Amino acid sequence: MGITVGMSAHSAPAGFWRRLFLSPNGVVGLMIVLGLIFCAIFAEILAPHNPAKMGTGGRFLPPSGDFPLGTDEFGRDMLSRILYGSRITLLIGAVAVGISMTVGMLVGMLAAFHRGWLEMILMRSTDVLFSFTETLIALSFVAVLGPSLQNAVIAVGVAGIPFYARTCYSAALVETSKPYFEASISAGAGPGRLLFFHLMPNVLPTMIVVATLGVSTAILAAAGLSFLGLGAQPPTSEWGYMLAGSRDYINRAPWLMTIPGLAIAITVLGFNLLGDGLRTSLDPVERK
Amino acid sequence: MWRFLGTRLAMGFLTIWVTTVLVTLLIHAVPGDPVQIMYAQSQGTTPEQIEQVRRSLGLDQPIPIQYLMYMERLFQGDLGVTIRGGQPVLEVIVQRLPNTLMLAVTAMFIAVLIGVPMGFLAAYREGTLVDIGLMFLSIAGISMPHFWLGLMLLFFFALELGWLPVSGNGGLNLILPALTLGLSNAAIFARLTRSSMIDVMSQDFVQTAFAKGLPKALVLRRHVMRAGLLPVVTMMGLQFAFMMGGAIVVENIFSWNGVGRMAVEAIFQRDYPIIQGFILTFSLVVVIVAIVIDALYAVLDPRIRRA
């Protein structure tokens, strides 16, 4: 909220990368996120065992040399499951944020561009949906569509739309009142050109910050649904679902609880820190 | 002030109205035949019984008529009966809602009591190691999944140390769920309080107070605190909605008998009347809390009070 970055240049502002690398939050966040992407891409190479194979080791083996993170109730290697889980987690974040951002940006830009009745309808409905809260929207969607990972991701993506629409709307309002925008209108630019070649590149920096922070919200929400059993179904090595399964063995094998939780927390922390770093390096007000 | 409150009230009514429309449509958005799906889990339901349920839910009528029928029943306090057990939905919700509200309110107290002093301290020591440390702590707190925090608290305090009960609905049972929900929201209050305090401290009236030579403690207490805490009040309204949402998960961890746990069970059992009732109740609570908080804000902030 209140993240409005105003810029008329289409590329990143001068000194953006230098500032990002100077902010400790941004650097740590970037490292965590890059590390995750690395794990997701090279899961086959990095994973010591097959994540789905039961009885790779004994059941409930505590962390040791062969199984650095121990084994679960079916004797599956936890490290391999966590590594493969990073793929699912990143995919969830990307798809959910993709849905929220695409629809949210379209709604926000259209409302700011087409002042009047369309703005009124779009922003009032956004306000109403926003007051429903994301949790309720996501839960209602799962209730209708039925529990599955795919439906949970759609639900989380849709639930995020009002927030992205609002943020994009306020960023776009700032842009449409700037001289360059009025100049393009006078120069005879059509609505498509104005929206996608002038407005969009300029609200994009703001939206990228929001989306980076949004990945963490989306991952948390989807993991929460999977934790409740409303998202990923067995035998997926989704972290939220793994965490839910650990409850029954909490006394016998506490590592089954600590490890997936830690994985979610580190991932979310990474995107939060990166988003924070991006914001401070893009925002001219915070820069001072 | 009245105009401000009037707008908020109108927005609240609009939200509730939209909820009733969406809740009626919800059952039609279900892929397949909702009545078949609802009864898929119970054995030996005859086609005649299914037809009868369809009629009693009004599903054989055109949608606008269904909406009017739903509204008519709603105004009589009739939310339908549960698919499993045939209990009135209103009764089930009224039984459980106080538990959820108690959990959310207690958690709110914990979040504010921990978060606000943290944010105040960080703002007071802005730029120092204390500030950086506290803010890192809060970003770590925001990143921590509350369901994980809940499991860890459960493991340490209930299982390892045996100090608190694992689940149930007594007074002691409230501690762990409320702590889970409160701690995971404290970080948000800390961040907001910090930025709001820093904002206020740089304003002219505070600079004037310092320039007059007032002692720092007095300026902080009388000038900064009052103005800086206003956004925190607004935040409490927004955050209450998040607490209600968080309660859904936390109730399930600790088997706390609230509406959140009821809703998740209903989703598994495809008990649509309960789900409809839950969505209505949830948005009603969120809207009422938002209006109360707005009224409180209007009373506290002279700029709105006199407008």
Tell me what you see in this structure.
The complex is a heterodimer of chains A (288) and B (307). Chain A starts with 15 loop residues before the first helix and ends with a helix. Chain A contains 12 helices and no strands. Chain A is elongated and about 75 Å long. Chain A has a single domain (16-282), classed as MetI-like fold (Orthogonal Bundle). Helices cover 72% and strands 0% of the residues of chain A. The mean pLDDT of chain B is 84. Chain B contains 14 helices and no strands. The termini of chain B are close together. At the A-B interface, helix 5, helix 6, helix 9, helix 10 and helix 11 of A face helix 1, helix 6, helix 7, helix 11 and helix 12 of B.
Indicate the percent of residues in helices of chain B: over 70%
Most residues in contact: chain pair: A-B, 44 and 46 residues
Fraction of residues in β-strands of chain A: under 5%
- Name the structural class of chain A: mainly alpha
**Main pleated-sheet profile of chain A:** none
Q: Residue-averaged pLDDT of chain B, rounded?
A: 84
How much is the radius of gyration of chain B in Å? Answer: 24 Å
Percent of residues of chain A in helical segments?
Answer: over 70%
CATH superfamily annotation of chain A: MetI-like
Low-confidence stretches of chain B: none
Q: At the first level of CATH, what is the class of chain A? A: Mainly Alpha
Structural class category of chain B: mainly alpha
Radius of gyration of chain A: 22 Å
> How would you sum up the global shape of chain A?
elongated
* Strand-residue proportion of chain B: under 5%
Order of helices and strands of chain B: HHHHHHHHHHHHHH
Tell me the number of helical segments of chain B per DSSP (H or I, 4 or more residues long): 14
